[in-house]
Specification:
The chain is of the alpha+beta class. The chain has helices at about 1-20, 30-35, 40-55, 55-60, 65-75, 85-105, 150-160, 165-175, 365-385, 390-400, and strands at about 110-115, 120-125, 125, 135, 140-145, 185-195, 200-210, 215-220, 235-240, 245-250, 255, 260-265, 275, 285, 300, 310-315, 335-340, 350-355, 355-365, 400-405, 415-420. The strands form four sheets. It has a nine-stranded mixed beta sheet with strand order 1-5-17-7-15-18-19-21-20. Strands 2, 4, 6, 12, 14 and 16 form a six-stranded mixed beta sheet that branches. The protein has a four-stranded antiparallel beta sheet with strand order 8-9-10-11. A hairpin with a 5-residue loop joins strand 20 and strand 21 (about 415-420). Helix 9 packs across helix 10. It is globular and about 90 Å long.
Length: about 425
């Protein structure tokens, strides 16, 4: 009989583990979690009660409404009182009904297409009160059409044929009047149901497709790393793209492999910040200009407002680290993203993951301070995710992690740390 009760207790505990969300490693000191790697139901109950005390009802329910029922059933297994059988039966039915409700309410992930038009883009800003153009659920996939930041006039003057100018770009330049303070044309915002301040939005970059057979690179004598010193006039250069061979034809004898990515992917900032310029990146991500964010990577962005309000644009066919003249190979992209709301992850700024590396980031107007912040973010990752001491994490950053200049021209400069997965066995 004792063995039967023990087996039943293990079964109840295992079911609770399945229903309990994973803990945030930074705050989990549970021995069960560290030993097994499984979410601890008791920790889930504790976190749920804390969320309930703070009035966060949705978060409280996410930390498993069945947990108190399960512990009551465990208590009943080893209690000889008159209500033991009734309590066990009631708990069993609660498990069955809860599981059935979860299955009934779990809608399959949906797929959407969001075209770029005057009604579905914002011009030059991220904003907490921007009106969403699409509402989706966590787990859904969206194919987003985005457009180059170059104007039809500048492209035509630089040599793009009239038939190669996108009608969507012409329409947006003609009809969108609410512009600024920045200059990027961003598709969105997208409202993701269930995303709350304090969560993390995981953006899985599944596909990227270049829409036009050209890119542009332009600079002004007053902007870029060499602003006001080396050039008297600016220039816009059209770079033909051989999409079949997957190369950019920069000049005779110079071919650059295409490596498309979005320069700007971000969410709305905190409401107190107002309508912010799309140019400088920040804790909302935005104009990171990180050339590592290609197909197969994941971008993790802290959520600041309900629904997150994701926007994307500033497509690049390729870029060098630094983006020194202030533009890359600017082009129009169609990107396919899957959006996942992460209740178990709490970040202070954006991070990313590629198939081969984890990426920590530092952002600051001063390049030295951006480096300091990237090092600290890398240390934080290694301590919380790889359980190193801070001393070992700092040393590992020095001997095995590459710190690269993301961009040095967007006002807020970026440094990113490439932490190789291959060194962890």
């Amino acid at each position: 009989m004792k063995w039967g009760r023990a087996a039943a207790a293990l079964a109840v505990f295992a079911i609770l583990c399945c229903f309990t969300p994973p803990a945030d490693p930074r705050f989990s000191v549970c021995g069960f979690h560290w030993l097994t790697g499984l979410p601890c139901p008791l920790c889930g109950l504790t976190r749920g009660l804390f969320a309930l005390a703070k009035g966060q009802w949705s978060a409280a329910l996410r930390f498993n409404a069945l947990t108190p029922v399960g512990f009551a059933m465990l208590f009943a297994l080893f209690w000889n009182g008159r209500f033991r059988a009734r309590l066990w039966r009631a708990g069993t039915w609660a498990f069955i009904l809860y599981g059935a409700a979860r299955l009934a309410l779990a809608a399959p992930a949906a797929e959407y297409h969001l075209a770029a038009s005057p009604q579905t883009v914002v011009w030059g800003y991220y904003w907490a009160v921007a009106k969403p153009v699409l509402t989706i659920r966590s787990g859904d996939t969206v194919e987003m059409q985005t457009l180059t930041t170059a104007s039809p006039t500048s492209l035509a003057n630089a040599g793009v044929k009239p038939g190669e100018l996108q009608p969507e770009l012409k329409a947006i330049y003609e009809h969108v009047k609410d512009k600024g303070p920045g200059g990027h044309i961003l598709t969105g915002p997208i409202y993701i149901e269930g995303a709350e301040p304090g969560d993390t939005l995981e953006v899985r970059i599944q596909k990227l497709r270049i829409s036009v057979p050209y890119a542009s690179n332009g600079f002004s004598p007053r902007r870029g790393v060499l602003a006001g010193t080396d050039f008297e006039r600016g220039r816009t250069k059209i770079i033909p793209l051989d999409l079949r061979r997957n190369v950019a034809l920069f000049a005779p004898g110079i071919e650059i492999p295409l490596r498309p990515f979005f320069g700007s992917m971000g969410v709305a900032p905190e409401p107190a910040k107002g309508r912010i310029d799309s140019g400088p990146p920040g804790d909302h991500a935005g104009n990171l200009d990180n050339k590592e964010l290609v197909v197969g990577t994941k971008l993790f962005i802290p959520v600041h407002v309900k629904g997150a309000l994701f926007e994307a644009g500033d497509g690049h066919a390729g870029q060098g680290d630094g983006e020194v003249d202030i533009t890359a190979m600017e082009t129009s992209l169609v990107g396919t993203f899957q959006f996942v709301v992460r209740k178990d992850m709490h970040l202070r700024g954006p991070r990313a993951e590629t198939p081969t590396h984890w990426i920590a980031m530092g952002l600051d107007p001063d390049l030295d301070q951006a480096t300091v912040k990237a090092v600290r973010d890398a240390i934080d990752f290694l301590v919380t995710e790889k359980h190193l001491s801070r001393e070992d994490a700092y040393a590992l950053c020095s001997v095995a992690v590459d710190f690269e200049i993301t961009q040095a021209v967007d006002g807020t400069k970026g440094v990113h740390a490439m932490i190789p997965k291959s060194i962890f066995k």
